[in-house]
Amino acid sequence: MVKLQQDIDAKRISTRIEELARCSSTTVGVTRLPFTIESTKAERLVEEWMKAAGMSVRKDGLNNMIGRYEGKNPTAPVLMIGSHLDSVIEAGKYDGILGVISGIEVVQYLYDNKIVLDNPIEVVGFCDEEGVRFHSTFLGSKAIAGTFTPEDLERTDENGITIAEALKAIGISDPDAYKHASRTPEELLAYLELHIEQGPVLEKVNEAVGVVTGIAGATRFSFDIIGKPGHAGTVPVAIRQDALLGASELISFIEKIALENVPLVATVGKLTVSPGASNVIPGFVTGTLDIRDLNVERKQKAIDAILIASERIAETRGLQITFEKVMEADPVYCSEEIMTLIEQSISEQGGSVIKLVSGAGHDAMAMADVTDVAMIFVRCKDGLSHHPDEFVTDEDMGAGAKVLLSTVMKIAGKQSNNIDD
């Protein structure tokens, strides 16, 4: 019997994440937008590591990095592991990147130990998930899922550069080649994504790894509250039509609804007050409401309650309150079958099974249009993400990668020509 090589190398995962963090246009945090000098540097490193793990490497028509580790049956459906290589502005090191590097580490383990699975494995580094540069999320995964459109190619960044022009600038001469990136349901066995939690739950229960049950659907509104401005010193409080006080009451009600409907979350993230003078009663307020839940019916009931409350507040205070829906994203449910395998893998590693709903969007949302999806969350310090202080310990990264490896082997099936079972 051939002796297996060393186990998952958490230190290697950590070292590679540090190397990628230097591919940044800012010195504070990580800023790596798609189709830039920084992203090209990162792609070269990822390509090098994929090849070292025994993968053949290619880029598709939208510049997604794809490493393929062949299976016992090369024509069998592919088990895809992925996450994104881009970042927000002055981001942390781990968001997206941990999933890509952990996927490479899993394949490195298979390669070092001469383990060949039934199905081919592909590790994907998606070009653009965050949507910072072109103001549209999941561009890379949409290309593979077949939902990227010709209109998407014409999206522009703040300098007026279209995606098509950006692709040409990095050497993709035919932007329409994105059409060849799409995969069919028959080609894919499933999509797995490992990601930092970006929340505090795992840390609070002292567990390194959790299983994601689904990604919450999101509804986003803008709202206007029209009152009547007046002199702050001469209009009695009892007869004011103060738009900001109306907004305050509305926001308090929104918090109440969220607390009554856990795990639903609701956020008023932006508020603008006019005229905005210290001695003038606020006459006009604009704001945003973002409300998320995996349960569509519960989310809609909460929205209905908020809209009814806004009418009551408007009538009581002599205001006009209007809401406009600006975004609607359906929830995505993870594969029950794969969730069970992840749970088994967590238990085998000595962890307790913690089930989590992702309130943040991930590439798995786009990939769900073409195949079954599942996600593994890894604990991050203070639940902090999209921030330079984002942090994951080597130990937790190793734990996550081991759960990912175990799950991959359960899904794709273990076969080997070189190891006596």
Fold blueprint:
Blueprint: H1 10-21, H2 37-52, E1 56-59, E2 65-69, E3 78-84, H3 97-112, E4 116-117, E5 121-126, H4 139-145, H5 150-153, H6 163-169, E6 188-196, H7 201-205, E7 209-215, E8 217-226, H8 243-260, E9 265-274, E10 284-293, H9 296-317, E11 320-329, E12 332-333, H10 336-348, E13 355-358, H11 363-367, E14 373-378, H12 394-412, E15 414-415
Parallel strand pairs: 3-5, 3-6, 6-14, 7-13
Antiparallel strand pairs: 1-2, 2-5, 4-15, 7-12, 7-14, 8-10, 8-11, 9-10
Helix pairs in contact: 1-3, 1-12, 2-3, 3-12, 8-9, 10-12
Describe the structure concisely for a colleague:
This is Allantoate amidohydrolase. The chain is an alpha/beta fold and 421 residues long.
Can you give a write-up of this model?
The protein contains 12 helices and 15 strands. By secondary structure, it is α/β, with parallel strands linked by helices. Strands 1, 2, 3, 5, 6, 7, 12, 13 and 14 form a 9-stranded mixed beta sheet that branches. A 4-stranded antiparallel beta sheet has the order 9-10-8-11, covered by helices on one side. A hairpin with a 5-residue loop joins strand 1 and strand 2 (65-69). The longest helix has 22 residues, at 296-317. It is globular, with a radius of gyration of 24 Å.
